[in-house]
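Check out a protein:
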Amino acid sequence: MNRLTKFFLRTLKYPPQLVYALGLGPIYGRLVLLLTTIGRKSGQPRVTPLQYEEIDGIIYVAAARGQQADWFRNIVANPKVEVRVKDKYFHGLAEPITDPARIADFLELRFERHPWMLRAMFRAQGWSSRPNRGQLEQYAANRAMVVIRPVEHEE
């Protein structure tokens, strides 16, 4: 990834942070949360806007860049995170997942909930817009995801 692309991608995180700061999290947060990790090198908080799914109070987030995503690598180094979603804020413990079968399960759920978005995403990446299970697992082989469970804040 060249420097210009990296710079562009990093600037994309600021508008969602502004939307949340303006109190519009309940609207914008239907699709995007703010995940705060601790930088694995800097030790500083890093905020990343990410699409998510919530199932029974547990947050699921996929890493399109797989294990190379900075926020994912931060979680591998330190699984304690903070999440701001809709009008909620909580501390969580993140579990990194790289198993293609579990990621394919997640993708199937996303196809059920957001078929138009997933079809467009798959088409844009040169994959079938209606992948079967085998194709989902093949796609998932280069991806990663995180499961975040809320925890009581420790002082």
The chain has a mean pLDDT of 86. The radius of gyration is 16 Å.
